[in-house]
């Protein structure tokens, strides 16, 4: 057999091509990986795992729900109790759209060692709805006419408060003074005075107190803490965070129930400390729109954003707040603004510095909200060395003029347009240099919702933590100090908007700096559009 | 060497096509092997079209690990067989199967939003065209024109002669 050069080329020519392609692919992938691990090593970020809490052993904790409205029902689901109506509706939704997994997620949720032992709602329809679904052989539930009765019954270990804002503090204080554990929705309080009273009650009580800022359980926020503490993005001078909503529900125009009447609603109890006005369904179901019971954007939504950042940065109460805004989209009789901008100054705050000592200090936190547009503006933390976008997913870009990364930027190892880090709780590993593809998939929210193939509800984690601390001791992540800071920041914003002036915090005396002739709580509760020169709270009765 | 041998014929074009497709598959396979973090999760979890439930099912644990491993193995198999010109018909068939799965996970149907594509397609996209090309490779093996099959053939011829 004679082999010509041509025969060899014909027969074996594929081998060098194979070798070349293999070498190119391998060296490409390896160098990308090396670049990635070099950046990751430099950043040294530890993505956090879901926190493990000690199991809730012993007899089931007897929980009572106060306020079984929209949020109350959601909180009960996080505790493992869904109404039959909701299950039926979610079943239908899943039949229509296979992607709709609310029911499946609920069924997959870990069971908590609790008994829903009591419900208290001043609207008969809601209380009866809870009884109809939750009174089963394994779970005996009782209706209490008032929260006082529930708290003093001796049959309830812990209460979940999901009422209008003006009832948060009175109910929390009453429960804490009677040794009953409290999970209260945000904002923690409705006035400045009760914020201090609640703080005292919580510090004195042996009962566990948690404010419902479930964002603290989100994995990316826990990872963000690590990133900030390592100075990855350097000194942060500006934070922008936003609310963007454009629908009736988002503007608090909730449905008014057909069976609502003075016969089915305990109107006096609803009013509580609020000005006495005749029965008004609109006020009952859409209470968030009036300062007498709610606190609009500053109490309802700013508090979420403020606390999300406070949990990462621990920046505390702002030195001063200036707010502006108005009612520009929903001129429907409400007296809380639907557009609000709040600038909070933290003059002495720093997240560390990569420059000359003393050069970098202070930060502004900008909250910008509208209920008239739903375009998604993300939360952005702007540091000298980098920018962080913080949501369920977390992305970091280096800054083109960073001091810390100057060398890597010069050596083309970093690029201001390319993220240096992306944390996606649903993806299987941190991604240093994100591709357009992974960006797209993550933007669709497909990745972060899956942790070990399961969607995880942060409210569930937040309540589980509270229950575990009740049983085993320890510390909750949003206790009285965090709640105090959240409430004061919200009240300062509300006051600034209402008074049209800057509100300062007196650090030494731990109180809002007094303004002569102004009673802060009176201002907070008043109707800013009342046709009177005096800001009297009872003017609201004329609305 | 006859004059016809030097002429560029259909088999030469097909052999070139085969090398290019093999090249493409091999490269896709190799970069996946050398990147331990690579996963097809995103591609499968965002699947569209009639087979969406099937792909979503695969994207879950523990199937996803199998899907990832089988994917790079199949890519390498197609790449190596087509590049070397040996077992090329099996390689072409595996290529057809693989491309059909890629196409069906994200079909270019006009009523579906086009995810992550660089170009405009109406039913037919690059996956489908490459699939058709693999069908050609299956029908027209060219390993004897360029590939290891030529070596085997020569040895076989030599053996027959000596016998």
Explained architecture:
By secondary structure, chain A is an alpha/beta fold. Chain A has helices spanning 5-12, 14-43, 70-79, 84-96, 102-108, 124-134, 147-151, 168-177, 192-204, 219-229, 267-271, 281-285, 296-300, 302-313, 406-410, 436-443, 458-472, 480-499, 520-525, and strands at 61-66, 114-120, 142-143, 158-161, 181-184, 209-211, 236-244, 320-326, 339-346, 363-370, 379-383, 386-390, 394-398, 421-423, 503-506, 511-512. In chain A, strand 5 (181-184), helix 9 (192-204) and strand 6 (209-211) form a beta-alpha-beta unit. Chain A is globular, with a radius of gyration of 27 Å. Mean pLDDT of chain A is 89; it is low at 428-450 and 533-543. Chain B is built from eight helices and no strands. In chain B, helix 2 (10-33) runs antiparallel to helix 5, helix 5 packs across helix 6 (88-105) and helix 6 runs antiparallel to helix 7 (126-139). Chains A and B meet through helix 1, helix 2 and helix 16 of A and helix 2, helix 3, helix 5 and helix 8 of B.
């Amino acid at each position: 057999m004679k082999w010509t050069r041509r025969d060899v080329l014909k027969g074996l020519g594929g081998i060098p091509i194979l070798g070349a392609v293999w070498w190119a692919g391998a060296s490409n992938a390896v160098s990308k990986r090396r670049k990635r691990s070099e950046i990751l090593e430099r950043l040294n970020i530890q993505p956090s795992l879901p926190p493990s809490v000690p199991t809730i052993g012993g007899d089931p904790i007897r929980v009572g729900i106060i306020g079984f409205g929209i949020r109350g029902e959601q909180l009960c689901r996080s505790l493992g109790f869904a109404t039959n109506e909701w299950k039926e509706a979610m079943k239908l939704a899943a039949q229509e759209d296979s992607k709709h997994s609310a029911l499946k997620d609920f069924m997959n949720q870990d069971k908590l060692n609790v008994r829903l032992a009591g419900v208290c709602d001043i609207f008969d329809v809601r209380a009866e709805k809870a009884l109809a679904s939750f009174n089963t052989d394994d779970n005996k539930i009782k209706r209490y006419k008032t929260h006082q009765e529930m708290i003093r019954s001796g049959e309830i270990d812990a209460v979940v408060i999901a009422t209008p804002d003006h009832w948060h503090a009175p109910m929390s204080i009453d429960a804490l003074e009677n040794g009953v554990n409290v999970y209260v929705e945000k904002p923690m309080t409705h006035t400045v005075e009760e914020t201090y009273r609640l703080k005292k009650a919580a510090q004195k009580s042996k009962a566990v107190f948690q404010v419902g800022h479930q964002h603290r359980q989100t994995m990316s926020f826990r990872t963000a803490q690590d990133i900030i503490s390592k100075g990855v993005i350097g000194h942060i001078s500006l934070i922008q965070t936003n609310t963007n909503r454009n629908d009736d529900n988002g503007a608090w125009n909730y449905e008014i129930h057909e069976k609502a009447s003075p016969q089915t609603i305990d109107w006096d109890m609803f009013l509580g400390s609020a000005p006495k006005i005749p029965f008004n369904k609109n006020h009952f179901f859409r209470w968030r729109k009036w300062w007498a019971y709610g606190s609009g954007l500053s109490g309802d939504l700013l508090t979420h954003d403020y606390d999300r950042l406070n949990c990462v940065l621990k920046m505390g109460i702002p030195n001063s707040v200036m707010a502006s805004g108005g009612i520009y989209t929903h001129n429907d009789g409400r007296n809380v603004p639907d557009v609000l901008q709040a600038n909070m100054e933290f003059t002495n705050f720093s997240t560390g510095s990569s420059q000359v000592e003393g050069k970098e200090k202070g930060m502004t936190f900008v909250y910008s909200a509208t209920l008239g547009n739903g375009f998604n503006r993300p939360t952005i933390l702007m540091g000298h060395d980098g920018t962080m976008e913080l949501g369920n997913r977390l992305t970091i870009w280096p800054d083109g003029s960073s001091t810390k990364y100057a060398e890597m930027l010069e050596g083309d190892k970093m690029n201001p347009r390319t993220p240096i880090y992306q944390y996606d709780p649903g993806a299987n590993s941190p991604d240093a240099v994100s591709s357009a593809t992974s960006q797209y998939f993550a933007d669709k929210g497909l990745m972060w919702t899956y942790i070990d193939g399961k969607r995880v509800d942060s409210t569930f984690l937040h309540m589980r933590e509270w229950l575990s601390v009740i049983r085993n001791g320890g510390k909750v992540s949003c206790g009285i100090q965090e709640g105090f800071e959240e409430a004061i920041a919200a009240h300062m914003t509300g006051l600034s908007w209402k008074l049209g002036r800057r509100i300062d915090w007196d650090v030494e005396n731990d109180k809002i700096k007094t303004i002569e002739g102004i009673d802060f709580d009176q201002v907070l509760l008043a109707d800013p559009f009342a046709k009177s020169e005096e800001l009297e709270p009872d003017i609201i009765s004329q609305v | 060497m006859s004059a016809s041998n030097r002429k560029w014929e259909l088999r030469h074009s097909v052999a070139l096509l085969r090398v290019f497709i093999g090249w493409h598959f091999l490269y896709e396979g190799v970069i996946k092997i050398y990147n331990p973090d690579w996963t097809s999760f995103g591609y499968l979890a965002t699947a569209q079209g009639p087979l969406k439930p099937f792909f979503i099912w695969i994207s879950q644990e523990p199937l996803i690990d199998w899907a990832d491993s089988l994917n790079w193995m199949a890519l390498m198999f197609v790449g190596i067989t087509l590049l070397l010109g040996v077992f090329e018909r099996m390689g072409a068939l595996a290529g057809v199967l693989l491309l059909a799965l890629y196409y069906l996970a994200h079909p270019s149907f006009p009523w579906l939003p086009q995810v992550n594509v660089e170009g405009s397609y109406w039913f037919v996209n690059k996956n489908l065209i490459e699939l058709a090309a693999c069908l050609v490779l299956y029908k027209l093996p060219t390993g004897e024109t360029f590939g290891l099959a030529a070596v085997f053939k020569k040895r076989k011829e030599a053996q027959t002669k000596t016998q």
